[in-house]
Amino acid sequence: MKHEIINLENVQIIGMAKEIVFNNPAECAKFWGEYVERIVKPVFMEGKTPDDFQLAAIENNVGEFGLCTCNIPNHNCGTCAAVNFCEGNTKTFTYVIGGTYKGGNVPEGMNLYPINSGQWLKVHFVGGMKAFQEQFQKFHKEWLPEHPEYQWASNAQCMEWYNGTDINSPDYQCGIMMPLA
Questions:
Q1: 19, 57, 58, 157: least CB-packed within 10 angstroms?
Q2: Sheet containing 65-69, strands listed edge to edge, beginning at the edge strand earlier in sequence
Q3: What is the DSSP letter of 153?
Q4: Which of 128, 106, 107, 120 is nearest to 178 (CA)?
């Protein structure tokens, strides 16, 4: 997998959030549908003048990231899936559809989320959103264990990253980012 090390310092993500039950990750995809209905469809497809919520989303590139975070102590997203994505688990995580906060208005329905400062591993997936889940699983189950030089930071979140609009294109750019210990 193509990967790189990037530095993030004093970054905040602005976005809309939803509590998702660990054993129902399909809710993340439904939440992206809500994002499309609330922001993409009215502004970019129907040409309507953006309201404050939509304007903040546009100005801060909301939709660039899918941030996963939770309040489980001594946790990191690297071990979370194996422990919590099991049948019957009623714990939740916060899934944020967000972008890098550039300042300005934080409208009702959006919040700011601080991101771990320091080095992050940014992994690139090939094949668009159709291949995302397969490559996401391969990253966690195969690639990361084969690369012990990359360790998750403690008490850390992870981010999915997206770049582009045609999610069905085999050239669509996306991947995952994890803060390094």
A1: 19
A2: 3-8, 118-125, 173-179, 158-163, 65-69, 92-100, 12-21, 111-114
A3: P
A4: 120
> Which three-class secondary structure string do you get for 22-81?
CCCCHHHHHHHHHHHHHHHHHHHHCCCCCCHHHHHHHHCCCCCEEEEECCCCCCEHHHHH
How far apart are alpha carbons 8 and 33 in whole angstroms? 29
pLDDT of residue 80: 64
Any bridge partners for residue 152, and if so which?
A: 180
Q: CA dihedral defined by 22, 23, 24, 28, rounded to 10 degrees?
A: 30
Q: Residue 100's closest CA among 77, 67, 143, 139? A: 67
Residues of the chain below pLDDT 70:
70-89
Chain mean position to CA 6 = 16
pLDDT for the residue numbered 81: 58
Amino acid (one-letter) located at 138: K
Beta bridge partners of 161: 65, 175
Q: What does the angle CA 17 – CA 32 – CA 166 come to, to the nearest 5 degrees?
A: 140
Give the three-state DSSP class for 165. coil
